Amino acid sequence: MVNRKIVGAHYGLRDWLAQRITGVVMAVFTLIVGLGLIQGAGASYESWRGFMSAGLMRFVSFLFIVSLCWHAWVGVRDIWMDYIQPAGIKLTLHVLTLLALIGYAGWAAQIIWRL
Amino acid sequence: MTTRTLQFKIYRYDPDTDQKPYMQDISVEIDATDRKLLDALVKLKAKDDAIAFRRSCREGVCGSDALNINGRNGLACLTDIASFPEGKPIVLRPLPGLPVIRDLIVDMTQFFKQYHSIKPYLINNDPPPERERLQSPEEREELNGLYECILCACCSTSCPSFWWNPDKFVGPAGLLAAYRFIADTRDQATSERLDNLEDPYRLFRCHTIMNCVDVCPKGLNPTKAIGKIKDMMVQRAI
Fold it and tell me: Chain B contact for A16, CB < 8 A?
């Protein structure tokens, strides 16, 4: 096969935008948790549990987990795209990253919702 | 006339005779009238005519004498000799990230390939009017800071994203030129130009570290142009 450089996968903007939006979601979540801690949510296990298991917090913390994993997917893949050239190794790393992040997301949701 | 001696450490490599590149220590006497690094290089060339470097206009317009000067890309003809600290050798290397042809001369093929890939010319299929295609002063204003690029490659060769993916990432110089035509109200191919860049490599390898802005000898801001391209893509998508 002639070695031609192929570009034009039209997902550059989508991922760039997703990274920024998920960043905002994580920043807002950090603020909420920070405010909770200031108000003494971290004083005891019971108060922390009460804070985290409230309906709104379940919703927001799940959004945070999804945002974190999505953000990490774009960021880690950026590293593979920058530094790894052979397509086979790059694809393997992409798949491993994706699988790990999906696993982490499921695991984290399970922990949060168990409260 | 007062003279000054300048010490140099120059990257030397002649693929016909050298196994590998080496740094050569050499000094040259300059006159008080020698103001720019290029003046000293011309004196050096007179002393050792095997030293190879590109130069042409000697006034920052042609962009051919871009070098890595003390670790920083710049034009020899715009770099003041007075800006060098006394007693320290001036380290000259070829622009980083491009193949070296000889000494300070690099192969710019990849750089210009990326430049050509953004179609750096006005695309307008309407029949040309009798005199010229007009713009309002505000529309023309938008092109300031874009058209002045001299394609010296200082910016692209100081960009790590361009070092890692020179075949896929357009690089700051190419993207500045791309925005120059995207911003031009006389151009009709805006959408095609945005399509051409909406790829994870071509535009989005830019991680906004702004090395390009730091080194541009013409004081241009490719990062700002890249940001405007991204803004236009977002506007188009929502």
Answer: yes
